[in-house]
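Hello again, I could really use a second opinion on something today. Take your time with it, there's no hurry, and the full record follows here:

___
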Amino acid sequence: MQSAFYTASNSHQFPLPRKIQETQFTAQRPFPKKLKTCFKAPTFTNSLRTSIGYEPEESLGKEPGPATPGRLPVVIRRSGRVSRYFWDGSCLQLVGVDGGAASFSFNFEDGFRKLYRICSLAVKDFFIPKQVSGNYMDYVKWKFLHRVFSSALQVLATQAMFRAIGIGYSRSLPAAAALNWLLKEGLGRLSRCIYTASLASAFDTNLKRVRFSTSVLFSLSLGVELLTPAFPQYFLVLASLANMAKQISLACYLATGSAVHRSFAIADNLGEVSAKAQIQTVCFDNLGLLLTALLNMLFKNSQRLQTALPFFVYPIFSVIDLFAIYQGLKHVHLQTLTKDRLEILLNTWIELGYVPAPAEVSKEEGIDFLRSKDKGLWPIRIGYLDPKNQIPELSAMTMRSTSGEDYYFISMEIFYTRIRGSRRQGILICVREGASTTDIVMGLLQACYIRKSLLMNKYRWENLFDAGDELESALKEWSKLIEECKRRAQGDMCLLNEQMLTLGWATKNILLSSLEQIRFSFVDD
């Protein structure tokens, strides 16, 4: 079929050729009696294509009657507007149908509502990516509060340091003040390098806790900068300490930003999400600058009030800033797997029989800023066997029974808590070099099954290995428990992996800390 489309900027009309041999609309007007027709049911696709075949016996030069005017079952949504195709008998029109206004009479209320809708859609297209997860808008709302008040505090802190330089070095050359400023910046960047190198893996395994911890550190650094006018003789010390804390926080913010953005990019549009995040940051920070300018204008006639202003607004702005960061991190649902995240997932699988979504695991995981979350009885650890925290006979038997086909082994360990110093027992998973993600998942699933069995008879297992006369039977029972839980874990792996992929979990890799990445090698001699 040959056709030509001409798009008009105002009417959205698409004239069709006068002679049509194939069309997509069922003709309603009667054809000539001597014209034999054959209709096919219309099928609407993205190319709006159906066919009507006919075989003329006479009057070959006559045209079939046009289709009945009316609306077509194709709707276009673009930039928040909804339009629908209409056929008026000779032209194809694209008419806006959002708002449901069928009348062309002027209505002030409807016009205002339409203008508001257009403006809100324009703002949304400017700030928000096209395809993001449903929790993104909640995150942006809290980010707005965080950036506005954080930016305002930074401006006030910078003003305070400039004031401190003027007070402390009123008789000095400008070069002396510049030297102090350069020393402050140099020490801050050096501390940033050291911090980033020492905590590289923690940015992945403990993203939320590290990010909130450094945010608290950043807020405290602003408070130290605000103190510099009160102690101008210690400007270099105070400013250097504050800048070191700020550089550490900046390093964490940059290192964790891509992971946060990736959690919202449901269509692999990480570049768009990152670009929109920069737009949001610039605009929100400018609002913070405007807030600071308004505060300075209000107190410009009183030098005493202007000097006391930072100390008055600092606690208020800091609380709002940290609260917004904390609430915003709650809406970040990471799909990557860490040891703790995977353990929550596997416990839910064992207890309730389903794989939880990233949002559910994120709620259970929390931020744990003070690391006060109790891991419960029989905590599971991935790492190496510490000779100080082991049961000698059990550890030796476990390692002796390990073969060349095993990529991990599970043992029991004894450790002491930091706060109370009490003796506790835990489960240790030692992973071999070359182990795959599947091996680690199955090992952790097996350990979770072992813990469930131990908790069902916790009083018996806690003191079983302390009894010397029952040690041999305890070792046999432990070996039996290991094999039974391994069979259960192997039977669950196929369905477990399928449900994890369905819910969007990133099962290709498991992010582990530096201690959890320690592997053992098998030597068969």
Summary: The chain has 14 helices and eleven strands.
